[in-house]
Amino acid sequence: MRRTYTSGIFLSFVVLTLTACSGPEAVNEYTQQVQATRTPAFIDRDKYRHPNETLSFFEIAKQQTVVEIWPGGAWYAEILAPFLKDDGQYYAAHFDKNSDIGFFTRMRAKFDEKVKNQPDVYASTITTSFEPPHVTDIAPQASADRVLTFRNVHNWMRNKSEQAAFDSFYKALKPGGKLGVVEHRAPESFTLDQMITSGYVSESYVKELAKKSGFIFESSSEVNGNKLDTKSHPKGVWTLPPSLRLGDQDKAKYQGIGESDRMTLKFIKPRV
Q1: Residues in the chain with pLDDT < 70?
Q2: What's 152's domain CATH number?
């Protein structure tokens, strides 16, 4: 009896350990070691952007070469750069520093300064330029394990460069590599003009872009979904946090909704 009882305790311990390793604590590996160097305001937005769960869904590992498209103010870069620094490679495919668009050059300059001033975080970061359809060499051909883009597809639609963007992602990925897309999600009834105006894009449109570039759709996650978002706002998606384009008008209402409802999609580049 005593021997059986001890074995039962051991088996229960194993089961509990495996359960814990597969739960929320397991995916915290993406942020737990880098919190000290992250911007406090960025950390406050984790409740909307779910970085641990999102990166876990995209199967990000320390040994990979990962390209992030348009890192902007470095929200995800503050996580990915130090996470990949020792064993992998982080490419920041940022705005073109020679762009004719003033916002692009200003944001790129701020990012370059951040990288320069924090060598402990960004020591191995490689920054490239991306401004489709003309500047699209985000990384050496077939070199990346993952390409990630967060809330960018609607921007490329403004100058009809979205297909060129997806083509460049396909080119940079290794066979078997994966593309992760997070984007504001439009109702399927939205027209192309409504998508461009509102900043919301339908899942079917994103999937078709990926398919035309050669990708195969693998799976989706609702980790960044938000059922409170009606997608019908005076200033489109920019009505919601963090933009709050209406200023103090109905501010509490939009803060109560939170950030946008977002699709989280994963595609694979075929091996053959």
Answers
A1: 1-27
A2: 3.40.50.150
Is the CB of residue 112 less than 8 Å from the CB of residue 128?
no
Q: Kindly state whether residue 15 falls inside one of the protein's structural domains.
A: no
**Both structure tokens of 100:** 């004719």
Q: How far is CA 257 from CA 135, 227, 229, 240, 251, in A?
A: 37, 9, 6, 8, 10
φ, ψ for residue 34, nearest 5 deg = -120, 5
Q: Sign of dihedral through CA atoms 115, 116, 118, 119?
A: positive
List, as own/partner pairs, every contact residues 214-218 make where C-beta atoms lie below 8 angstroms and the sequence separation is at least 24, other chains included: 214/170, 214/269, 214/270, 215/166, 215/170, 215/179, 215/267, 215/268, 215/269, 216/267, 216/268, 216/269, 216/270, 217/265, 217/266, 217/267, 218/178, 218/266, 218/267, 218/268
Are 224 and 50 within 8 A, CB to CB?
yes
Expressed as residue numbers, the domain containing 64 is 28-226+259-268
> Is residue 136 a part of any domain in this protein?
yes
Domain contains 238: no
Condensed to tens digits (0 to 9), the pLDDT of residues 50-67 reads 999 999 999 999 999 999
What's this model's pTM, rounded to 2 decimal places?
Answer: 0.89
Backbone φ/ψ region at 199: left (φ over 0), alpha (ψ -120 to 50), beta: left
DSSP secondary structure letters along 221-233: E-TT--TT--S--
Predicted pLDDT at 29? 80
pLDDT, position 188: 98
In a domain, 109, yes or no: yes
Cβ neighbors of 20 (< 8 A, separation 6 or more) are 26
pLDDT of residue 27: 53
User: Per the structure, how many domains does the chain have?
Assistant: 1
